[in-house]
Amino acid sequence: MxxxxxxxxxxxxxxxxxxxxxxxxxxxxxxxxxxNSFKTGREILHSPTALPSTITLIGYTGVFEELDVxxxxxxxxxxxxxxxxxxxxxxxxAGYAFAKIxxxxxxxxFGFMLITMMIPGVLFLIPSYVFIYNLGWVGHxxxxxxxxxxxxxxxxxxxxxMLGIPDEIVEAARIDGAGDPTIFMRVILPLARPALATVAIxxxxxxxxxxxxxxxxxxxxxxxxxxxxxxQFRGTVPGENAEQIWALTTLITLPIVVxxxxxxxxxxxxxxxxxxxx
Amino acid sequence: MTAIARxxxxxSRANRRGDLSAAALALAPAxxxxxxxxxxxxxxxxxxxxxxxxxxxxxKEYVGLGNYKALYESAMFRNALTVTFTYTVGTTLxxxxxxxxxxxLLNSGIRGQNIYRLVYFLPVVTSTVAxxxxxRYLMNPGSGYAxxxxxxxxxxxxxxxxxxxxxxxxRIVILVGVWxxxxxxxxxxxxxxxxxxxxxxxxxxxxxxxxxxxxRRITVPLIAPITLLLVIMSIIDSxxxxxxxxxxxxxxxxxxxxxxxxxxxxxxxxxxxxxxxSAMGWVIFAIVFxxxxxxxxxxxxxxxxx
Lengths: 278, 306
Known about the structure:
The structure holds 2 protein chains of 2 kinds.
Chain A: H1 2-36, H2 41-46, H3 58-66, H4 69-100, H5 106-116, H6 122-134, H7 142-148, H8 152-163, H9 167-175, H10 180-191, H11 193-209, H12 212-217, H13 226-236, H14 242-262, H15 264-276
Helix pairs in contact in A: 1-14, 3-14, 4-7, 4-8, 4-11, 9-10, 11-15, 13-14
Chain B: H1 3-17, H2 19-48, E1 51-52, E2 61-62, H3 66-73, H4 75-106, H5 113-125, H6 128-138, H7 145-152, H8 169-193, H9 198-206, H10 211-239, H11 243-248, H12 260-269, H13 274-305
Antiparallel strand pairs in B: 1-2
Helix pairs in contact in B: 1-2, 3-13, 4-8, 4-10, 5-8, 8-10, 10-13, 12-13
């Protein structure tokens, strides 16, 4: 009895030890970043791993002087919010049509869209750039917003979810005299909330963290996003402004981590939904 | 009339005319954008891949399969493919193995599962640029954390330092790739592990199977479909890696981290060889498509066998 109890607790201790060690390794870069954001540049250089001897906000005040952080933040927010709203709306509409409105050629159109999902984004890079350039959109937000408004993958996610909503509910509403707009707004949208939340979370995260799109299309500093600001900032004064770089990376990482903390379950479910419906 | 009101009247009118118009109205915005920003660029990219063009001059020159032939003969492209394959294999194997280990430990009935999951998932939601900048500094020569740690342990860091060392740079990039991906794999694995009936483990324990036996004979085969799914997803993502490398090493030192995504970007936006870059895009597509196809075949067979 006693030996088996000991064996169990020994393996339990080992389990906790392994998990905690791994967790520390995973979280260390975040700790390093936040920790150094409260030090002076000289202290970062001489003792990068130690805790700050005195907590200073010099990095934060400095980066606000060097960069228009609020503007970058605003730009990132404008982009992420518009893309998320548009994309979620269009995914809901298209998903509804593909799942709940029988029309000729539905399967074929949807199947065709699915096949294009396997095409890697790099293939679109150049032709899209040339096309958007010719439209005269380079340097404007809509160069990023309009093409990102539609994602086949999100339509697919919403459609899969809406297929699970029983047709009887839709039929009952139709018998009550409801047209498609009413059914969509009053019946389908509320029921499809989990799928729409998934789409919204993934889209927002993708667009907030994207730096390649802004790098290509937003060449004017007044349009730069946080990610682009960090990229350029890092390039300009190497080594001189370490404390400001840590302050800025902390500021960039913070919003999405805070959102993640608050809706952790939805986030995790969003990712689980994605792969399990693939 | 506001746009929404206009849409609403148009829509209810459409409804009287039947399902087709309702569907057309609901689909129209998505289909139009899809055609403009997916189909058209795809066709245009095929066209560009048989042309020689610098993106500025009004004339494009038809070169047939010349761009593809040049790629086939290009040592730079071959190097990029090798680097990308190494990165893909490394990230996929390590990412899947570690995440299965962590997921099984997390699923063994410990307390605080949620907290651990939260921590391991953190890198997944972090911006790539911020993560790459942090990792670059961790690997900084002399003052970086890696060097400090090794010195504290009485070891000598490699010279030249990590990201400037041709042997080490790609390993560090793989490490960052695994770090960024681990939490995602863990979450998917956990969902799968929770679907395995507890009775299987109980029956095996009654039959005298140890924990290693249970892992090998129950967990691994029953979780195989998810493993294959994660492997496919990881291969597709890793093969198209660009951003981490762009920020951390920009392909160096001496091309040891120059992945195909980066080479394509450089050809297109630094050297303005749009034809070559387009052809490269199609070759990458063909490779990813072939890998996916082979794996889906394998995946399907495996699933049917279970």
